[in-house]
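Try it yourself: sequence plus PMV, in.
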Amino acid sequence: MKAIAKAPGKAILTGEHFVVYDQPALVMAIDRFISVTVAKRPDTSIRISSTLGYTGTFEGEKFHSEQGGGAAQRILTPVHISASAVLDAVNHRCGLNINVDSEIPVEVGLGSSGALAVATVSAVGRLFDIAFSEPEVVNLSLEAERYVHNNPSGVDQTVSTYGGVIQYRKNQSAIRLEVESPLSLVIGNTGVRRETGRLVDSVRARRTRIPDVMDRVIRSAGVLTTKAVDALKSGNVSLLGELMDVNHGLLVAAGVSSIELDRLVHAARSGGALGAKLTGAGGGGCVLALVPDERQDTVSRAIQDADGVPIKVNKVEGGVHSWINE
Ligand code: PMV
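Structure, out:
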């Protein structure tokens, strides 16, 4: 018997980083998914294989890499943490074979680690015939995110669990927004991988050095997200685009943009985007452009000409779901 769970990735429309400091963020589940398949095994080890090119087995404290060399342990540890969190919660000590199948590129800000944790928690729960509630999935999957950085906001796990478009604030219930206007979005991937934890730390360090300045930037970002939520609710997409442009400026002020990201942001704007910003932790990874429907191809080409990989994404309404395969 196998249990399978499928969870969507995400794109942050506004508010990344500032959400760590209790400001709201606006985030959307996107139509790129991670599937996790789990089966029991007779011993107590946890073997994880992944289409991302990493395979290895955790036996107690030890890790044996089979594929992906030294990086395998770092990449697969969050899966191990998520699976172990569920085994502890259901009070079982059995081994597992876990297979990860992902269409979300890793470490570029599209929520691959959040979706992976959420899908792992749901799949392992389902294997033991437990359908966790949405808040339980978020809570259990946060343990893995704490390994990635020690003060996660929970935004990635929340949107991957609930799906749709969400107004999120740390330690508060997520607010699902009913969005009438179709949002036409193009992502531009710089292809530069980065570690979320390092970037979150760098923002904290800047805030410690210049708290008066950074606290104002953080508060502005909170006001900006509130305005973005209103713009989205009233269908004012050009205002949402403008707010995304300003949000990029605030993220530049926080020190998390890069030459590659700025290049793609400007390329998207020149190609006719209503607004463009880095999305996720920054330092590399992706930009997100809000575009008029008829400009999707022009903006994609502009991103390509600026050495980015364009990815057209759509909103998905559903969050994680799981099932049993006999
Ligand atoms: O998962 P990433 O790299 O897209 O970043 C998550 C968003 C941050 O705000 C930078 C971190 C967090 O915990 O909210």
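One thing you can check immediately is this: The chain has two domains: 2-177+317-325, 184-314.
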